[in-house]
Design a protein that fits this description.
With 294 residues, this protein is α+β, with helices and mostly antiparallel strands. It is built from 9 helices and 12 strands. A 5-stranded antiparallel sheet has the order 6-7-12-10-11, with helices on both faces. The termini are far apart.
Amino acid sequence: EIWVIPYLPFHSDIPGVGCVISVAGNRHAIDTAKIQGIPLAVIPNAVELLREFHLSTGMLRVDPDRSVRFRTAFPGETGIPTVKKKVNIVLPPAKIGTKLIYRLNEVDENFVSYIGPKAANIGKVMAGGINVPEGIALTFAFWNKFREHNALDEKISALRQKIQTDESSGKVITPGSEVKKTLADIKAVIVDGSFPKAMEEELLAYIRELRGKYGNVGFYIRSSFNFEDLPENPMAGHYESYPSDELMNTGSDENILRAIKLVFASMWKEVAFNARVSNNVADKDVMPALIIQV
């Protein structure tokens, strides 16, 4: 069986198929194939090329010159489904330090326990002399202060208990419509939170510093959770980044603060929640850090 997936990342489970085809060889295509444990072929016109073979059995072959050949199966010919291996996720521990914010040019891979893999990797690249947009990393300690300031543990726990899961199978038992509503309620609790005044002032001082160098620009605000960008599973598309259709203007103080809360809340996107359940990762062990870049 061959699946042609025009839009990636694809978060639903793909059965043991022989190959997955993407119309673009981007990172999301590569990550999806890696996560699903199946081969990937990139064919720009795959949708049109294979449309007439829909529901047919066939064979896909890539020749040494990289040309792709497809034929329908001979009578009685069957394929061998790919057996997907269960990958055990090793979740990096998140440490709550004393520092709330770092400039990206101050960090490297040694800071991963405080700012997550993505932010740490950006700092490592910058230290290597590669030109990367300047910015800051909000640490796990930043989230921890926000969490405590808004008593989020109690509020989220009261809602989370409405969702029943089976740890042995890694499945969500509660009906999907109820899960969606509960996750939306949890995200709303986070977005409705406020920042401690001193922490907000410290953050905006860094933002003013960046504006002083680059003018009144918009900022890119994205996640650096400890449960993403892992060797076993990159978690592409699991968390939100801004600007996006939901929030296009990320230049004002008000919208920067809102975008930060929206990224925090994306821990409770359905795809991110399901990833925790299927990998037996406890909610409390997942910590959000953030990257803000010009």
